Amino acid sequence: MKIIPYHRRANYYETDQMSIVHHTNYIRYFEEARIDFMRQIGCDCRKLEELGAIIPVVDAYARYHKSLHFDEEFQVDIQLEKFNGARMEFSYQIRFPQTGELAVTGHTSHCFVDEHQKPFSVKHRFPEIYRRMKSALSPRPATA
Amino acid sequence: MKIIPYHRRANYYETDQMSIVHHTNYIRYFEEARIDFMRQIGCDCRKLEELGAIIPVVDAYARYHKSLHFDEEFQVDIQLEKFNGARMEFSYQIRFPQTGELAVTGHTSHCFVDEHQKPFSVKHRFPEIYRRMKSALSPRPATA
Amino acid sequence: MKIIPYHRRANYYETDQMSIVHHTNYIRYFEEARIDFMRQIGCDCRKLEELGAIIPVVDAYARYHKSLHFDEEFQVDIQLEKFNGARMEFSYQIRFPQTGELAVTGHTSHCFVDEHQKPFSVKHRFPEIYRRMKSALSPRPATA
Amino acid sequence: MKIIPYHRRANYYETDQMSIVHHTNYIRYFEEARIDFMRQIGCDCRKLEELGAIIPVVDAYARYHKSLHFDEEFQVDIQLEKFNGARMEFSYQIRFPQTGELAVTGHTSHCFVDEHQKPFSVKHRFPEIYRRMKSALSPRPATA
């Protein structure tokens, strides 16, 4: 399945006094792209939470190559690098769409917990979600 | 009871590319000062929420007089202008502590709802909170 | 000229522990819609700032009718209520697109200053911008 | 020189609908602690920027151990792990002050650029800052 890259413009309130997007906001862009990715493969994060499936962030990394400015368009390419039904890992490349140049790269890893913060097996509890996520795994060797 | 003004410094990530604190962040400062005010009069907002008492914002207004810059200290003076057990209203003055000069003024109004979004009477459900808030009402004629 | 309403979904990081969009974020949505409005009428805010035309917020008001949740779509209808070349005022209605129901309404007012924080006349300095903004004025009587 | 850990409470607007502090906000806490650290060793980041010394973030990493909730107090322990006059690296531990338990750990690395985005040597341009930062280097072997 071909994932359509997430894209939008940088907002004014996302800049800081360096006149660039504040470094923490790119990790928010990662989140936007991740939720969009999940929707594209048929996994609605909002519905999942309503069913008691929470997907907290275990760790997050971002490397800043070139800054985004107010109103600049960007796209986020995202890959599901690892998924075993208990954990998953995504990698991200935020790019300037015109040139393909990299703005920020990074990765996040996640686990699955229920409403009582207890880990659960996606395979047993949501077999259809499990199948979809397995199919969405990046064919590239996981390197992140 | 004398309320101690809330104060801290403006954070880097709160600035925008005008090199001043973004206008929406002052309304977040209002919230910080309001929660601090509630604590000072003996009403712990965190405990209240755990007991199912939610205090949503009904409206908010801010007027911008003079901008705050990164790392500048500010203080927030806050008054409880109205409180009748179903609704309440606060007014705020964000100031430069050295000169007393105004940075931002504003007000917010609030209601009280339970965990099912239903309004409730503070007087009946939390009589001690009611008494404390009544005592904390600003003696000044409510003008906002 | 017909303005296309601004729309997108609410982000996860825009929610708070009430499980609704935090009240200050709607005022950020106002800003997004305002910049989009300006672009639609041919006034690029980024270019204007590069030319030394800064448009700070003088005051902002929001009234909260019904909360937005994570991932919910919303649209922002925006009107330029007043513009005289020195000041301007916008009104906003954030709605649920399916039903047209109101989520948040509000208004902001603005002035025009140069890079030294000095007010300037849009009419004299940017006659084409002046003309476009005058044409974009809402035909409705200004009520906000 | 003994650095006093940075500490404050988590704000309401920093929570998300998981009822915990959103993961990106901890990286903002890193920034707050870093600026406080710099002030403690006599390097005022605001003054440095006014002199044209910008310190952008090159990369950032956070690992989430245990979540902070609204109004919870936290402290940030910070160490300057590396500094060579062109680059520097900090490590951070966000803790629950009562128990010392870890909430979040991480690190950031930074470079020094002038107002034209050109790297410069701190040793040549700001010898006193260079001396202070060298003295503030963590005695522990850099592990991050």
What's this entry about, in short?
4 copies of one chain form a homotetramer. In chain A, 26% of the residues lie in helices and 29% in strands.
Written overview of the protein:
- 4 copies of one chain form a homotetramer.
- Chain A is α+β, with helices and mostly antiparallel strands and 144 residues long.
- Chain A has one domain: Hotdog Thioesterase (Thiol Ester Dehydrase, Chain A, Roll).
- In chain A, 26% of the residues lie in helices and 29% in strands.
- The first copy, chain A, has 4 helices and 5 strands; from the N terminus they run E-H-H-E-E-E-E-H-H.
- The first copy, chain A, has a 5-stranded antiparallel sheet.
- In chain A, a hairpin with a 6-residue loop joins strand 4 and strand 5.
- Chain A is elongated and about 45 Å long.
- Chains in contact: A-B, A-C, A-D, B-C, B-D, C-D.
- The interface between C and D is small, with 11 and 11 residues.
- Strand 2 of chain B pairs antiparallel with strand 2 of chain C.
Task: Outline the fold blueprint.
Four copies of one chain form a homotetramer.
Chain A: E1 6-9, H1 23-40, H2 45-50, E2 57-64, E3 73-83, E4 87-95, E5 102-111, H3 122-125, H4 127-136
Antiparallel strand pairs in A: 1-3, 2-5, 3-4, 4-5
